[in-house]
Amino acid sequence: MRFLPEFNKVILSGKLTTRDSIPVKQECLFISVNDTVANLQYSYTNNKGEFTFSLNDY
User: Fold this and answer.
1) Considering the entire predicted model, what is its pTM?
2) Residues facing 50 on adjacent strands
3) Cβ contact 6:13 at 8 Å
């Protein structure tokens, strides 16, 4: 997994696997936050099932 620079932001990262601990490859993930303006971000898992989100000012 590559590491992103954290310039006063929070990086959310993780690994998506099946119940059998098999990495889920090339899956699109979404994250949203309740707010007055729609805040929806997406990320794709890599071949190891790893993903990252760079969280804005939530």
Assistant:
1) 0.75
2) 15
3) no
What b/e string do you get for 34-51 counting C-beta neighbours within 10 Å, with b at 16 or more?
eeeeeeeeebebbeebbb
Structure tokens at 22: 């098999």
In which residue are the tokens 């989100």 written? 53
Q: pLDDT truncated to tens, each residue of the chain (58 aa)? A: 566 666 667 888 999 999 999 999 999 999 987 778 878 899 999 999 999 998 866 5
Q: Tally the domains of the chain.
A: 1
Asked if residue 30 is part of any domain, the answer here is yes
